[in-house]
Design brief:
Largest sheet: 4 strands, antiparallel
Distance between the termini: 22 Å
Shape: globular
Low-confidence stretches: none
Order of helices and strands: EEEEEEEEEEE
Structural class: mainly beta
Number of helices: 0
Strand content: over 45%
Number of strands: 11
Helix content: under 10%
Length: 125
């Protein structure tokens, strides 16, 4: 999967490098970060439009939009069990989102201080 300045994310065949013909459209600014859920059934994208979105990659349909940052999202990550999402932003915050059952997400934790930027996030297994 790739994110693009054209506001979309696209799915590719990892073996051939060919497009799978699936475009995830719904952001209003560049897609800056992408991640698959561990089971491969969902895609998480982050954008300069200050939202993250969860997608069904088989249909290209948006499942939900996460809002809570005040500046562009620079990084996204999914927990190993798929039960939470993590977003980091240029606003200096990181937010952990619980997802149950992939129809809503609730922010449960914020970073304690606002740094200049959160360029990358990841979770320990």
């Amino acid at each position: 999967i790739t994110g693009s300045d054209d506001t979309t994310a696209r799915l590719w065949d990892a073996t051939t490098g060919e497009s799978l013909g699936i475009t995830l459209s719904g952001h209003t600014a560049s897609v800056t970060s992408v991640a698959f859920t561990p089971d491969g059934l969902r895609v998480l994208t982050g954008s300069k439009d200050i939202t993250a979105k969860l997608w069904d990659p088989s249909s290209g349909k948006e499942i939900l939009t996460l809002t809570g940052h005040t500046e562009e999202i620079t990084t996204v990550s999914v927990s190993p069990d798929g039960g939470s999402l993590l977003t980091g932003s240029r606003d200096g915050t990181a937010i952990v989102w619980l997802t149950v059952p992939w129809k809503e997400a609730v922010p449960v934790a914020y970073s304690p201080t606002r740094a200049a930027n959160v360029p990358h996030v990841n979770r320990a297994p």
